[in-house]
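Lecture 7 notes: from sequence to structure.

We start with a single chain of 350 residues. Read the sequence below before looking at the structure.
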Amino acid sequence: MDTLLDFGIVVAKGGVLVNAMLIAAAYMVLAERKIAAWIQNRIGPNRVGPWGLFQSFADVFKLYLKEDIVPAAADYKFHALAPVISIAVAITVYAVIPWSDVFTLGGKEYTLTMAPDMNVALLVVLAMTSVGVYGVALAGWSSNNKYSLMGGLRSSAQMISYELSMGLSVVGVLMITGSLNLMEIIRWQTTGGWTVFYQPFAFIIFLVTALAETNRAPFDLPEAEPELVGGYHTEYSGMKFGLLYLAEYANMLASSAIMATLFLGGWDIVPFLDDAAVLGLEPNSIPMVLLGHGAFVGKSLLLVFVFIWIRWSLPRFRYDQLMNLGWKILLPLSLANIAITGTVMLFLNR
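Now the structure, written as tokens:
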């Protein structure tokens, strides 16, 4: 009976997680349009629903009704597979993000997370970012379009280049916390302080590489409209285009959640203080866990705002500038950060 109950809880959490991710991505599209309008002194969407709140759902419904057009010379199997790979990678990353601490219910411990105690959760995240390039590369190649192919090639080179700096930027966090388990990394921060105070350069490097990994401006070379007419998704329409578009925003929220986990204490509300004692609540009680979950989501959404803010504030890099930044600046800085962290830990005997 307990096994059946646990299986039901896992299925329910999976269903809630996927639907919450899809709804969050839809509202992030609306938030992007609203924030862009605010930055440009416009009004933004305000017709569909109160304050335009249903605009994203109207757009999804429109995409669903659009005809699925596939070029005659395209490879249909891979053309259809590419959007599935992109969205599947995003969903997989959400499964290992520790959205909450454990809470006790009926004498058993539960979390709002799918895989709370995965010892290699951070490696799974880095592996999924590596696999994500296949969706974009396949989309560009299978379309049999020169613009799409160029976008796919750019994406492959860009994501592979910035993965190195992204992976190296988190090494300092691993050296301090001593774990690849995302839950353990957050628990270390609840007592030792948020790692952004110990690793500020690593946080900046991770933020920049996350922008490049998600193809966000100023790193949106794979889909540069003035040069590539949309890049790797030029030949996509209907829900296939919708899935590629959705995957970008899902990856943006996932990257923000990973940054909140690694550098901003996850569900920890106030750094260097015992949240339960400050709020007068029992540790690991349901109210305490829900408050921590709200703090985690709030930090993630704040970073999403930073992603959107950067897009509408900075111009796109030239391709040579993008590669020089990845190889000549971020990679040496991430290596230097590891060396400095190791030296400080050696002198402090930690």
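The first strand starts at residue 103 and ends at 105. Keep this in mind for problem set 3.
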